[in-house]
Specification:
Length: about 250
């Protein structure tokens, strides 16, 4: 069986799910390019936990509309893929995580997958982002998930390299200079295999503005832990929007 890929996807605004934008076009192409995995293990910036990781063990992923003030068209979008309770149990055991049924599939994941797999026919196992975990701990979680790729299970981590809602420029189509600079440094580190620099993101110039809170950056570290030495890193959607949001994404396979 071909090894399934690892993805880190910058999801940005929820409107990217339904508007005409470069990210959405790339997500649609990815679905065709990669084919369908047996299931997707999804690490979401929008499902945060503290003091441990949680894994959704439900048979169906209830859709979470965890955003407010957007057009009705976005709330009319329906995407509730099946779960995989057996796989979820294995993931929970591997990660020493807590089985959980309180969450569902949030917009950090469904905004991407409704374009990658619009038929909603790929099961999804949701995994939380423990915002209290060290980068080393999160990298280790990825290492534990990595072997599941050999069984055809893809890993999708969703967040943003740069995510500062307090600095959003709603009329901007690109990024502030500080957002561009930080994003490019992380992209270079990821594509150059310098995982330690990514894990030490807080010491990278501009991090206080680019990562004022960690939840959107940390899924990238989990993704890095899941890759193999012979995986090739490819960046895509390498642009910024709304001034303070990075769409930069990575594929490893």
């Amino acid at each position: 069986m071909e090894r399934a890929p690892v993805l880190f996807v910058g999801h940005g605004s929820p409107m990217n799910a339904i508007t005409d934008n470069p990210a959405r076009h790339a997500w649609k192409q990815l679905g065709s390019q990669l084919g369908k995995p047996k299931a997707i293990i999804a690490v979401s910036a929008h499902w945060t936990s503290r003091g441990g990781t949680k894994v959704n063990t439900q048979a169906v992923n209830r859709q979470i509309y965890d955003m407010y003030g957007f057009p009705q068209e976005l709330y009319d979008l329906r995407y509730e893929p099946k779960g995989n309770p057996a796989l979820a149990g294995r993931v929970a055991t591997l990660l020493e995580a807590s089985p959980d049924t309180s969450w569902g599939i949030d917009h950090g994941i469904w905004s991407i997958l409704c374009n990658m797999y619009p038929a909603c026919d790929v099961p999804v196992v949701m995994v939380s982002t423990d915002v209290t975990a060290t980068p080393a701990k999160l990298y280790g979680l990825g290492r534990k998930l990595g072997p599941l790729r050999d069984e055809g299970y893809a890993i999708l981590a969703s967040g943003n390299v740069v995510h500062n809602l307090g600095k959003v420029g709603w009329d901007m189509q690109d990024g502030y200079p500080w957002a561009d600079a930080f994003d490019k440094k992380i992209e270079q580190a990821v594509c150059g295999g310098n995982h330690q620099k990514v894990m030490d993101y807080a010491s990278v110039a501009g991090s206080r503005l680019a990562v004022p809170t960690p939840e959107h950056f940390l899924p990238l570290i989990v993704a890095l832990g899941a890759i193999r030495e012979d995986d090739k890193a490819t960046s895509f959607n390498a642009y910024r929007e709304l001034g303070s949001m990075s769409m930069t994404s990575f594929l490893w396979k």
